[in-house]
Amino acid sequence: MNDAPAAPLTVLANQAAYAEAVQLAVDAAAAYYRDGTSGLDDDAYDRLVRGIETYEQAHPEQVLPHSPTGKVAGGAVEGDVPHTVPMLSLDNVFDAAGLERWAAGLERRLGRSVTAWSVEPKFDGLAISARYQHGRLTQLITRGDGTAGEDVSRAIGTIVGLPEKLTSPVTIEIRGEVMMTTAQFEAACEKRTAHDGTTFANPRSAAAGTLRAKDRPYVCELTFFGYGALPLPPTDDSELAVRLRSLPHSQIMDVAAGLGVATAAGTPVAGIVAASVEKIQARVEQIAAARADLPFGIDGVVIKADLADDQEQAGFSSRAPRWAIAYKLPPVEKITKLVGVEWNVGRTGIIAPRAILEPVEIDGSVVTYATLHNAADIARRGLMLGDSVTVYKAGDIIPRIEAPVVHLRTGDEQPISVPQACPHCGDGIDASQERWRCVRGRTCRALASIVYAAGRDQLDIETLAASRIQQLLDAGFIADFADLFFLKREQVLSLERMGEASTGKLLAAIETARTRPLSRVFCALGVRGTGRSMSRRIARHFGSMAAILAADAEAIQAVEGMGTEKAKLMIEELAELRPLIDKLIAAGVNMTEPGASATAAAGTSTDGADDTTAAAAGLPLAGMSVVATGAMSGPLAELSRNQVNELIERAGGKASGSVSAKTALLVAGEKAGSKRTKAEDLGVRIVTCEEFAEMVAAFL
Ligand SMILES: NC(=O)c1ccc[n+]([C@@H]2O[C@H](COP(=O)([O-])OP(=O)(O)OC[C@H]3O[C@@H](n4cnc5c(N)ncnc54)[C@H](O)[C@@H]3O)[C@@H](O)[C@H]2O)c1
Ligand SMILES: [Zn+2]
């Protein structure tokens, strides 16, 4: 992400196009700061403004006085409460090179090197100034045009993190960002939908609308994070005021936190002080990586010269301080159209809607689908077909629709129809729970689930094609994959196109499947949220099916990568799968994992972190994180990727899909691409398939 250029600008061909662009930007910014109802997403707005800037540089004589460039809030807002000290915006950089140029420019201006940079998240909300008199919160003011803002003191008492009373009776001005957490946003949307059937487009505009709303019959909670504190009035010469003028920024934030104000400290993206541009860059990458999992929005990282002397000497431009910069992260939210909703039946009979979107690029990939959890979710969000919707995607997370952009509706939107019958088999729908299910449950998708269970990475029953499974289902010989183990020779022989030889082959393949390790048997069950690698981890951790079934949620969470939600889901699923599991046990299917630790197998271990490591000691790959990439060749040619990963784990290693500093070994097959390059860059040991096969020969 760091070397990605900023999004292309909007190219303006002539003076008329320029004038039109200025008007569009001014209107968008006015709506954005008024109540968050701009028709442009931030990326589109920023490209427009960059286009305006470029045009103005080439044609300085044509610059319109109301142009948004160089102004706080694009010149779109005004206020009537003067600020003690202007509340400015921030200049931007978009990549490592931009950051380096900016830092070097600042150091040139100061005539010395900057030895302390504070690096903190750029909260994606709106700026506010909070005035405290003798420890009491007395006034809240928006940023406005930077010199004066609007009084929004009516919101006092509704903002988490901005206490009405400080821990000490001081007079001080706190500056920071008001926003909504994901949970607050969901709650706000529900309240608004119940009230007038509409919703907020995203957390930022919900926060803007809420902060400025007058006479709303419902109250929505907000969240505050502070990023500055100053003497009040600025001419104050109390001891605190003197400290606020002379302390480094990072220590001022400690003072604010000590007074009971929320700051980035205590979040996974806490502010740090970095001594060099390389260290800043490293922190930017950490913050970017943490972004998708944060319960609140950030749209960048703010870097500030930490020391008061550096700040004072650098000063301000009309729009922004010269001692700070916003390192923008790629936008993770875009506006696009909801063109359809499809209903899919999962392997377990769950009927889930999925949104079909007009393709849009977000965070480096083209998004065409987004999750919609269930019918209630659609109703709660008030979605309609043809709606413009805000779509959120960051990193690897599945894209989700945040809300329809209600003010962009044209009147042509249509209600979303919900199925009356199971779209897979036509039978009824059990809608008694939020997640709908086909009344036939797992049997609705019997064919699909048996095909999955017999697949190469699960029971690997050779010669059992989907058409054969369908024949067995139609004949009533099987209803689930456990029934395969009870098949009689005569039954198989009675099928069309089934001779002696092929019957013998199929029955032999089923016999072999009876002895597969627990990891594969468990995977074959198709527990929701539990794929191949998680199944391997579970099997290695517990050692036996009995231990898995005896485990409670806490014990299951001891498995690496198993969160609270997943553990809860797994217990529910296992309860539901119990008859199938019992049938497999009765069929004599293997229920243990070779080589798994005995303590965990007995179900007595609560400390899951170490047992696999302990069990692995003495094995050739003990403690090593191993990545296999490219097409496997030589002695490994026959193995699927899953089988290679199983091999790695049998030999004591940890199979991983991506190369990082933690990777100990890369197995490079033919046409190994970017992972190999990355491993080379990181100095990771690289071996060929042949060399690897030799290392783990005893386990092949
Ligand atoms: N969609 C639209 O129509 C539209 C219109 C206008 C503006 N915008 C968006 O608004 C942004 C520009 O607005 P802006 O001028 O408010 O600038 P900005 O949001 O890019 O940066 C300045 C602001 O960052 C905030 N901030 C967050 N964390 C901070 C921290 N740790 N330290 C200091 N400040 C911090 C402060 O409120 C400060 O005022 C752009 O991203 C633009 O896309 C969108
Ligand atoms: Zn069905």
Task: Fill in the keyword field for this structure.
single chain; 700 residues; alpha+beta; Helix Hairpins; D-amino Acid Aminotransferase, Chain A, domain 1; OB fold (Dihydrolipoamide Acetyltransferase, E2P); 6 domains; globular; binds nicotinamide-adenine-dinucleotide; binds zinc ion; DNA ligase
CATH homologous superfamily of the largest domain? DNA ligase/mRNA capping enzyme
Structural class: alpha+beta
Oligomer: single chain
Based on CA inertia axes, which overall geometry fits? Answer: globular
State the helical fraction: 25-40%
Instruction: For the record, give the distance between the C-alpha atoms at the N and C termini, rounded to a whole number.
Output: 39 Å
Mean pLDDT: 90
Q: What do you see in this structure?
A:
It catalyses: NAD(+) + (deoxyribonucleotide)n-3'-hydroxyl + 5'-phospho-(deoxyribonucleotide)m = (deoxyribonucleotide)n+m + AMP + beta-nicotinamide D-nucleotide. It is an enzyme of class 6 (ligase). One of its GO terms (molecular function) is DNA ligase (NAD+) activity. One of its GO terms (biological process) is DNA repair. Residues 616-688 form the BRCT domain. This protein is an alpha+beta fold and 700 residues long. The protein has six domains: 15-75, Helix Hairpins; 81-328, D-amino Acid Aminotransferase, Chain A, domain 1, CATH 3.30.470; 333-408, OB fold (Dihydrolipoamide Acetyltransferase, E2P) (Beta Barrel); 441-513, Orthogonal Bundle (DNA polymerase, domain 1); 518-616, 5' to 3' exonuclease, C-terminal subdomain (DNA polymerase, domain 1, Orthogonal Bundle), CATH 1.10.150; 625-699, 3-Layer(aba) Sandwich (Rossmann fold). The chain is 36% helix and 18% strand. The strands form five sheets. Strands 13, 14, 15, 16, 17, 18 and 19 form a seven-stranded antiparallel beta sheet that branches. Strand 14 and strand 15 form a beta hairpin. The protein is globular, with a radius of gyration of 30 Å. Bound molecules: nicotinamide-adenine-dinucleotide and zinc ion. Nicotinamide-adenine-dinucleotide binds at residues 28-29, 32, 38, 40-42, 45-46, 73-74, 89-90, 120, 122-123, 127, 143, 177, 227, 302, 326.
